[in-house]
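Sequence in, structure out.
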Amino acid sequence: MSMLTLPSLPGALQWKNVPVDWHVGPDSSLSITAGAKTDWFVEPSGSTWVSTNAPVALFTPPDEHFLLSAKVTVHFASTFDAGVLLLYEREDLWSKLCFEYSPQNQPMIVSVVTRGLSDDCNSTVIDGNTVYLRVARMSGAFGLHYSLDGTYWNMVRYFTLGNVENLRVGFEAQSPTGEGCNVVFSEIAYRPELLKDMRTGE
């Protein structure tokens, strides 16, 4: 499986589900194009519908505490098209922070925590097709944040995945109902830093 490196990250990215297309820009941005009917989701209603086929580039963070952020631009076309930061332990234990196109045709911040089944939560509507996303680890807890300017961060979710021993984190594109979606992750930043307050994002 192909690997890639970005100067802002402390480890090489490895593909889990290879995208239709990808490339690294001259500004070290990462463009990922997902194919049709791609997603990460485990239906919580009791049905057996599971989707784990969206392309994601993952690396292993070397630090117990860290922040990973990116400016995310999504070329929305269909419902649930999204650009995503993914925290991944295994196929039944993961979380994603999404900039997603809602059924109401609005770009929206969405978070999913999956411990066997997915817990899905819609959050804030965003004006436009670009937003900043960030995931943070604080020992055994994680925080998901978004920002309109990359400076002031708003908390979306604060949670735990329990005992994680093989955590990887990275970048995903998805198009669950559509024929594909292109996402550009730019201004990618990784910091081995402990947030003082997960709720304020500082």
